[in-house]
Amino acid sequence: MTCVFRFLAAASIIAICPPAQAQEEDSGETSGNAYPEGEIVVTGEGLEPALSNIVYSVTEIEREQIISSGSGRIEDVLSNVAGFQQFRRSDSRSSNPSAQGVTLRALGGNATSRALVLLDGVPIADPFFGYIPLSAIAPEGLARIRVTRGGGSGPFGAGALAGTIELESAGADTLGPLAANLAINDRAETEASAAITQQLGGGFGVVTGRWDRGQGFFTTPAGDRVPASARAAFDSWQVGMRAVAPLSADTELQARVSIFDDSRTLRFDGADSASEGQDASLRVIGRGDWKFDALAYVQARNFSNVVISSTRFTRVLDQRNTPSTGLGGKIEVRPPIAEGHDVRVGADYRRSDGELQEEAYSAFSGLLTERRRAGGVTSNLGLFLEDDWEIGPLVVTGGVRADHTRIADGFFRAVDANGGLVSETIAQDRSDWELSWRAGASFYATRRLDLRAAAYTGLRVPTLNELYRPFVVFPVVTQANAALRNERLQGFEVGLSWQPVDAAVLSLTAFDNEVENAIANVTIAPNLRQRQNLPAISAQGIEGTLAARFGSVSLDASFSLTDAEIDGEGASSPLNGNRPPQTPEFAASATLAWQPAAGWRLAGTLRHVGAQFEDDLETDILRSATTIDLFAQIPLVRNLSLIARAENLLDEDIVTRNSGGSIDLGVPRTVWLGLRFGLKP
Question: Are 65 and 81 in contact (CB under 8 A)?
Fold first, then answer.
């Protein structure tokens, strides 16, 4: 791991140095100087959002909201967006990392993300499992978040089955020379983060870090605890380095290196999981007449997990190593073809490879019973073309993607303690071309009313985890399935944005989405499931947002009401008409904030998540939960503020797992107190 990180860091530094040197040499009054007189100031951002953003259902979260949540965690911020859903209700301190899949519009999931999550344009899902490393995303380092619901056909659109979540890092003008946060809660858990920014000629460099650690809380209800029950202890840290430098008057280079490590304990002593990663990316942005965005990235990840028997409380499985690698890139060009047209054309590529290495042990003797290996390679090459056409008050958009997907080198092999073959699967290599598209229009009906409509299709390739890795959550065994097919989405939506007064905007969207070949954990016998392609999961619903600003008071609210069901191949199927697991019918949140003076912010968030089923047969239910979070920032002295936060203020029991009556709970009432320091840019 250390060698990989040093190599990536060195590569980024080397890439950054030439532009800085060139600027120094050309800064004189030479006739060939390509720069205008004086410094060239870069932004560190991507290209401006496409005009088509007004056609689709888009929500933007600004920095003030991002850094003022009750928990201080990114999943809490995203939970304020209508339709956002994690696979489980647990946050990134008390869940298994491999269960941190995210989706939109109640399309369900099996811990793999159906929404594409980008950080500065880079897909950040784990190459093997497809989960999002939420604990590695520090909210303090972000400038804004843009959430687009519905299938995507632009760059990396093959992963945007349910929508796209774009995270944008904050630059020097936002962070200032130094920003730091330190907090402690009523369980003596700590949270610390810092960002140091340095102007470098016309560019800048940023070093960020965050460290969270604590004893955690008991996820097991008090009446169900045994001597082996353990708190959900956590210890995670992340360090990132980002540099931005000008290449010319309208071109800039962006480089990023990030490492993270996350350790957790779940339910029982010894049930420890760990995830780690080292990521690097290079990006070149051109803002001239021919705008372009060129990106390359590499990810090195690993995951380990120990499973403890819930009856004998001994080790039964050691998933000791799951190394995986992701790499890819894109090139997007926006040529100035014709007035009124915003054309985007390009290509992207992603490749993931990894291998599971685990050992199974007898719960009675503790002796090794099996050694298992599983892994393979998936890749996706996409070609895309989109055009936004502005015709007076009407904006028309359309896009198409052609994706060549490939699944290769797949295998599963199990041998006994003496090396004798127990079972083996050698999967057949396969590849195919698939076409997806999206189109829509937005009409500026009046000064206060916009109308829009859109239709789209989407694509998602199964992850290596879904294809080849079986797993056990005692007593339920879930088998892998090397024959899984690609998921396909088709859907449409209509919506409006209404501004009844200058200070308030209401947005409503009605949608109808269907995922064909939806991958799910399907029950095939008592305590036995298998990953299978369902004929379809359909979801129809309404989602809405309200943003209002009245002087120093603001209100941001959202809701989603969704009728989702499984198409189980006819009325005789036991799944037909069932609601997808882990999918609530109704969810809503509202944040009321008051900023009476500069540096002050008082905010409260009310959030409700409706009841949902644990499994596909609807036998176990996770009851609804309503929570209140609070946040306060009060200036003390120059550049220093007091921060107070409260999670789940009413101490609601949040059921996150229910397997035959064996229950896990989410975060209880937690109160934080801390300090925030920030030098002005």
Answer: no
Q: Which residue in 66, 60, 85, 46 sits closest to 146, CA to CA?
A: 60
For residue 381, what are the CA distances in angstroms to 293, 294, 378, 483?
A: 17, 15, 11, 21
Rounded to whole angstroms, the maximal C-alpha distance in the chain is 82
Q: Which fold has domain 2-17+54-678?
A: Maltoporin; Chain A (2.40.170)
Backbone angles phi, psi at 215, to 5 degrees: -75, -20
Beta strand 368-391 with 341-361 is antiparallel
User: Nearest Cα to 303, choosing from 465, 77, 84?
Assistant: 465
In 287-393, which ranges are E strands? 291-308, 315-321, 324-334, 341-361, 368-391
Q: How confident is the model at residue 617 (pLDDT cuts 50, 70, 90)?
A: confident
* pLDDT given for residue 16 in this prediction: 36
**Predicted confidence band of residue 672 (pLDDT cuts 50, 70, 90):** very high
pLDDT in tens, 452-486: 999 999 999 999 999 998 877 667 788 889 999 99
CA distance 68 to 671: 14
Residue pair 349/332 in contact (Cβ under 8 Å)? The answer is no
Give me the mean pLDDT over the 225-248 stretch: 96
Distance between CA atoms of residues 674 and 186, nearest Å: 12
Task: Please report the pLDDT score of residue 524 as a whole number.
Answer: 83
pLDDT for residue 603: 97
Average pLDDT, whole number, for the chain?
90
- Asked if residue 123 has a cis previous peptide bond (ω within 30° of 0), the answer is no
User: Is pLDDT larger for residue 340 or for residue 681?
Assistant: 340
Length of the chain measured in residues: 681
Given a contact cutoff of 8 angstroms between Cβ atoms, the answer to whether 194 and 222 are in contact is: no
Check whether 179 has a pLDDT greater than 80.
yes
Q: What is the per-residue pLDDT for 527?
A: 79
- The span from the CA of 470 to the CA of 476, in Å, is 11
Go through 164-193 and write b for each residue having 16 or more CB atoms within 10 A of its CB, e for each that does not: bbbbbbbbbebbbeebbbebebeeebebbb
The torsion angles phi and psi of 59, rounded to 5 degrees, stand at -125, 135
Q: What is the DSSP string of 593-635?
A: EE--STT-EEEEEEEEE--EESSTT--SEE--EEEEEEEEEEE
Residue type, 681: P
List the one residue out of 101, 74, 98, 97 whose CA is nearest residue 87: 101
65: number of Cβ within 10 Å: 22
Q: Which two tokens stand for residue 501?
A: 């007064």
- In this model, does residue 152 exceed pLDDT 70? yes
In three-state form (DSSP H/G/I as H, E/B as E, the rest C), the secondary structure along 373-422 is: EEEEEEEEEEEEEEEEEEECCEEEEEEEEEEEEEEEEEEEEEEECCCCEE
List CB contacts of 572: < 8 A, sequence separation 6 or more: none
pTM more than 0.85 = yes
Interatomic CA distance for residues 183 and 644, integer angstroms: 9
Which of 122, 76, 75 minimizes the C-alpha distance to 101?
Answer: 75
| Tally of CA atoms within 13 A in the half-sphere of 372 that contains its CB | 21
- Distance of alpha carbon 616 from alpha carbon 642, whole angstroms: 46
Q: Which two tokens stand for residue 33?
A: 């100087």
Side-chain half-sphere exposure of 18, counting CA atoms within 13 A: 10
Q: How many whole angstroms separate alpha carbon 610 and alpha carbon 585?
A: 6
Residues 441, 651: Cα–Cα separation, whole Å: 45
Q: Could you tell me the CA-to-CA distances from 121 to 309, 332, 457, 547, 641 in Å, in that order?
A: 41, 11, 21, 27, 33
